[in-house]
Design a protein that fits this description.
The protein has helices at residues 3-12, 31-40, 56-59, 75-91, 104-116, 134-142, 171-186, 203-218, 234-248, 263-272, 288-296, 307-322, 359-367; strands at 64-69, 94-97, 121-125, 146-154, 165-169, 191-196, 223-228, 254-257, 280-285, 301-304, 336-338. With 371 residues, the protein is an alpha/beta fold. Helix 5 runs parallel beside helix 6.
């Protein structure tokens, strides 16, 4: 650990400082492998049916789903819930959003509402942790209500055993793509500052995806530092922590806020330290204001997910489960890189579901026998 990392350790306390994990990889950067992964996610996604066709309207007649987003104030989960409601209406069954402000007591109220109103299933969307709702889940099961989670777990994590179906996403694969981006863009000379939130369920797998891939494609000369910023402290911790890190180690060339809404606190930290030309931001989610920042040049890239694609994939998996069909436990949501070359395609200002093409719309209509 060199003097810069000693300074960082004193600033941030426990964390990973500099050393890459022991993962088999080349002694020199594998820039071709990094480039290939980046290029594969820089073309508009195409639709491949995730299962056999079925008559969705017929099988869902009389059924209804309550979705509880982690917070209705979170634009990402709020917009997924809104899209799910619209798709449900198109298919002739009810999807209801239980609006809340991320308070567990409100999640409990939503569970009770679903049980009392004889919903077929409850969807815990984007961060509602079933581990904190054990008694309510038990009551739901007694009432014949199935418990689902969506966009919560990484595909390499085991869901809570009380969950009937979990629609996970490969956060670790997103981490690998971020690692490949920074490796390719720096020519294998990465010194990254990773910002995460340890209390968010998929964060450990997400960060491991970044660090393992850096070890594999970037090699031992690449370095990273990790800052844990709990969600309630984003507005107070991220900016000063990033600012201090950039001052302590002037060779940092990338900040990777793993959830892109963190970027609103990273951008001013980079600006105030005068590092706009030397420190870039690579992130994930495709939140519109961050894609706007890509258009402005204050964020270099954002790996996006189509909200409409997410909503359709969630409901496709759930409908198959509720209708007794063969289902699956991974969201079928392609990841697509927005950078300076294509961010304008998301609109100005950017929209949650723009810039991804529309293959999934016709694809799911055919899959659900609507046409």
């Amino acid at each position: 650990m060199n003097i810069r990392h000693v300074l960082l350790a004193s600033l941030f306390g426990a964390g990973t400082l500099g050393a890459l994990p022991s993962v088999a990889g080349a002694a020199t950067p594998d820039l071709e492998a990094a480039k290939a992964n980046v290029e594969a996610h820089s073309v508009l996604p195409t639709f491949t049916p995730p299962g056999a066709p079925f008559d969705a309207r017929k099988c869902m007649a009389g059924k209804k789903i309550l979705t509880i987003p982690v917070s209705s104030a979170n634009p990402f989960t709020k917009n997924i819930a809104t899209a799910m409601k619209a798709v449900g209406k198109e298919l002739g069954f009810e999807v209801t959003e239980w609006e809340n402000q991320a308070r567990p007591t409100q999640w409990v109220q939503g569970m009770e509402f679903a049980i009392n109103n004889k919903y077929s299933a409850i969807d815990m969307l984007g961060g509602v942790n079933p581990a904190v709702l054990g008694p309510q889940i038990a009551e739901a099961h007694k009432a014949g209500v199935e418990i689902f989670t969506s966009h919560l777990y990484d595909t390499i994590q085991k869901p809570d055993p009380s969950v009937d179906q979990s629609m996970a996403i490969p956060y670790h694969k997103v981490g690998e793509l971020l690692a490949d981006w920074v490796t390719y863009k720096t020519g294998g000379k990465v010194n990254a500052l990773i910002v995460g939130s340890d209390e968010i369920v998929p964060t450990p797998a997400f960060v491991k995806g970044i660090t393992d891939r850096l070890a594999k494609v970037c090699g031992p000369q690449c370095r990273y530092t990790y800052i844990n910023a709990p969600v309630p402290e984003w507005s107070t911790k991220i900016k000063p922590s990033v600012q201090s890190a950039l001052i302590a180690d002037p060779t940092i060339n990338y900040v990777i806020p793993i959830y892109d809404s963190m970027s609103q606190f990273v951008v001013p930290a980079i600006a105030i330290t005068g590092k706009k030309n030397t420190v870039k931001i690579a992130t994930f989610n495709g939140t519109p204001f961050v894609i706007d920042d890509v258009q402005k040049g204050t964020v270099e890239m954002d790996i996006g997910e189509s909200i409409g694609w997410i909503a359709r994939s969630i409901l496709d998996g759930y409908m198959r489960k509720l209708c007794g069909l063969k289902t699956y436990d991974e969201l079928y949501v392609p990841f697509y890189i927005f950078d300076s070359s294509n961010a304008k395609n998301a609109g100005s200002p950017a929209g949650y579901d723009r810039g991804y093409g529309d293959q999934h719309i016709a694809g799911y209509e055919k899959l659900w026998m609507l046409k």
